[in-house]
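ZP: hey, is the S-adenosylmethionine complex queued? I don't see it on the tracker
AM: it wasn't, my bad. submitting now with these inputs:
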Amino acid sequence: MHYQKIKIGDNVVEFHNNFLGRETVVLNGQIVSQKASTMGVDHPFTIIETGEKINYILTSKVDGNTWEALLDLSREGEIVEENIKVSHGIRSSKNKRKRSGIKKIVDYDIEEGIEDLIEGLKKTPKDPEIYFYLACGYAIQEKAVEGFEALKNAVAFNLQSVEEILIHDMLAFLRIQKGFEAFLDSNFTEYDTTQLTHLLPVKAPENYTKGAAFYDKKEVFDIYIQHRNREDTPNGSIEKPIVMRLLAEVSGEVLDVGCGYADIATDLIAMGIKKYTGIDASARMIELAQSKLQAPNVTLVQTSLESWDYGTSKYNWVIARLVLNYVADVKAIFQHIHKALKKDGCLVFSVEHPVLTSSMNLPRLPGKKESWLVDNYFTEGDRRQDWLNSGVIKYHWTLETYWQLLNDIGFQIEALKEGLPERINFKSEREYQRRKRIPLFLVIKARKC
Ligand SMILES: C[S@@+](CC[C@H](N)C(=O)[O-])C[C@H]1O[C@@H](n2cnc3c(N)ncnc32)[C@H](O)[C@@H]1O
């Protein structure tokens, strides 16, 4: 730690800097400035001199050759004392890779900073400061396990100012981990990796399947059906009620693309439609749908959206619930649907909300979603998602793209819903509150014009 006392008339100014580079200036026993610093920072403060407020600045800096910490003092913009020496501190460390590593980490050059610090450890393997900054670097990279391990080592090797772990900005990602309190309680000696965010294990590309092939895996299909039958599922409590509201005037012939097990068909028949045609590429889905629906005005076909012959001006309504995220060329499907609709016919479709699909391939905290990091929003295209104990390829398009495509193809958007949950559709108040945090669905009604 650096410490220096400076007298300005009757006033005592103290400067100190803990090993993390957090600098504090104390005037007559009172903190007047506290800042994080790497190579130097200004600490302004005022002193009353003969009834007048005088502005002082104490500037910390580092001698580029000796790595000594120095101070300059200026009064009303004029330097009054220069190169005041401050003793001891990390900047005088002889370990070059440690010094450069810390500087890089604080400058957010994280990858290289970590590399330098790891090299630095070869010279001083029990250096708590190196471990502390490694933890900062890993925290920024969102590597919780590595970050916890580095903190554990930092404390084991007698880190001074352990309380910095609780306040340092760069460590915020580690502190939000579920397992952080238990880690703290153990005095930073033990942590449970199941309570930490893990980077998802990278599966080989062939382990991510597309659309129907994903649903046709027995283990995926079984879990999916279990999920759909659960209480307060997002499909049942948010997506379907919105879709049903947009289908209030449904009538005539209806095509349901990516119909799954045709969950909606019974509702539509009860609403008096003339004919329901459901298409889906999954053999398991179509088989389940057939086992539930045997009405004469129901047709179920196992086919992909890409290869189905949609025909021209055949349907009054087309429905596409949560299927378009599996389609690489969504524009082509919208064009087929547009052609297949009769004049003034309507398309009602739901997709996973673009804020979700944008970053669904990124790691997230285990357990129920309480918050969601949006990233890569404007990079459209495929996303690999680990879901239902398996891997699936989905496609992300922005809200703007959905709107533009529909518009360009000749649809008029009549309703756009972002999946606002309604209390009446939830059994659990807690689940309702949780579902108000992150938009899960985008639902659009568009009319052929
Ligand atoms: C999330 S499920 C939704 C099922 C149904 N629409 C519902 O909401 O209950 C997605 C469905 O899309 C189907 N699917 C995915 N890609 C497809 C494609 N290219 N052609 C046809 N069906 C596809 C899957 O087999 C699956 O049944």
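AM: back. The longest strand covers residues 341-352.
ZP: great, adding it to the tracker
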